[in-house]
Specification:
The chain has four helices and 28 strands. By secondary structure, the protein is of the alpha+beta class. A four-stranded antiparallel beta sheet has the order 1-28-27-26, with no helix packed on it. A four-stranded antiparallel beta sheet has the order 2-3-4-5, with no helix packed on it. A hairpin with a 4-residue loop joins strand 4 and strand 5. It is elongated. The protein starts with a helix and ends in a 17-residue tail after the last helix.
Length: about 425
Amino acid sequence: VDVGVAQKAFDLRLPDLGPYSLDFTRAGRHLLLGGRKGHLAMVDWQRRSVQCEVQVQETTRDVCFLHNETFFAAAQKKYVFIYDKRGIEIHCLRDHTEPNVLQFLPHHFLLASVGKSGFLHYQDTSTGHIVATHRTGLGPCAVMRQNPWNAVLGLGHAGGVVSMWTPNITTPVVKMLSHRGPVNAVAFDPSGHYMASAGADNQIKVWDVRTFKPLHAYFSYSPVTSLDISQRGLLAVGYGSKVQVWRDALHTKASAPYMTHRLMDGVHLADMQFAPYEDVLGLGNSDGYSSIIVPGSGEPNFDSYVANPYASLRERREGEVAALLDKLQPSTIVLDPNTIGRVRKEPQEVQRQRQAEAQAANAARLAAQRAESDSKRKMKGKNKPSKRHRKKQNNIIEEKKPQIKAQKKELEQKAAKKAAASPPPDVPRALERFFRK
């Protein structure tokens, strides 16, 4: 490998405060480490610079970033705490009691936690309100992973059951008996079509989430404690001090691992995660942190509107505002997000029944109209437009007729008076002017 890639593989020796859990930002630029004995650190691992470091002096079981590297959450002994990029405590979420594992839903701004009490909590980090609290009813839980395609949370329980939850329903939307023993790890493919689960029965099973049926299974020499799937579909399996990376192990059954890595003697793996947009696998262990190079694991082409590893301060602020404006409501979390906005097609039997009812109603209405028309006395030609116009004109004439008759009578009376006052016919015309009118 070249010098630039070789620098991405390094070890951080922190033997006194481990084992360590870890998390990467969505852009893959920053790394968050959380030691079991209270050591929290945020590192710009590409530049090898420590952004903040704090000792909370309390048991820390899990850590995760929020919407970007400015805030992160830590699942401590009793509650969940929120810290900023300087390591200053911002909030204490007292509703999340005795948490074991955390997950953040970036498109919905929801922080989810589950712990010893077996309650699953959803809290909106933009408003601070508790969105939902579900009682799983399956005992303490320490395994949780979100499906990046639909934001459904998958929980692994001690009875070998994997349950899937949404904040809208108080019961699991899916409940599968996956293993004959406790479920130790769960991971989802970025496309949301495949799920990998590992249990105490030394089995690694790959499931088709669309049909909820197992595709194939792999055997491990000891119970697997960590699973992760990269952006390009590589499956990482960790148990004890050994890490295996399987290629093309989801669509088809692979015959041999793609890569195998072993930690130092006496070092046990606690957590692992692929770095987004990088061919790097981060390993949190009892001795600190290690990163190994896995060729072909990261997506080479990033979308700056989704996650930009090289974002400036202004771009990060604008992206934060845009993410808040595009924030999705918790009610949009469903098993199949394609159903949102789709017209629901009814079964053919229901369609036939409604069509028959509509035809019967139309026939009854037509029969009623025909009966009503037959009962009426037909008057042919009485309602033509020309007839209506002529009738209207006749009404106008009838209104003016008395006035016209009065005027005509007055004229006739005047003419009669004038005729009565005329001179006799035997009077000469020259003397007519002398006749008294």
